[in-house]
Amino acid sequence: MQRTRADFENYRKRVEAEKQSAHQMGQTKSVMKLLPVIDTIERAFC
């Protein structure tokens, strides 16, 4: 029973880490898509 609990806890931690990684990857991709737009706006107003 103790091993089952430990396995489940490890699974839970792994899923949480994967979720955070996916969230961060999504943020990175969003920012990368916005950079050319921001660059163009900066050039237009500077």
UniProtKB/TrEMBL annotation:
<dbReference type="GO" id="GO:0042803">
    <property type="term" value="F:protein homodimerization activity"/>
</dbReference>
<dbReference type="GO" id="GO:0051087">
    <property type="term" value="F:protein-folding chaperone binding"/>
</dbReference>
<dbReference type="GO" id="GO:0006457">
    <property type="term" value="P:protein folding"/>
</dbReference>
<comment type="similarity">
    <text>Belongs to the GrpE family.</text>
</comment>
<dbReference type="Pfam" id="PF01025">
    <property type="entry name" value="GrpE"/>
</dbReference>
<dbReference type="InterPro" id="IPR013805">
    <property type="entry name" value="GrpE_CC"/>
</dbReference>
<dbReference type="GO" id="GO:0000774">
    <property type="term" value="F:adenyl-nucleotide exchange factor activity"/>
</dbReference>
<keyword id="KW-0143">Chaperone</keyword>
<dbReference type="InterPro" id="IPR000740">
    <property type="entry name" value="GrpE"/>
</dbReference>
<protein>
    <submittedName>
        <fullName>Nucleotide exchange factor GrpE</fullName>
    </submittedName>
</protein>
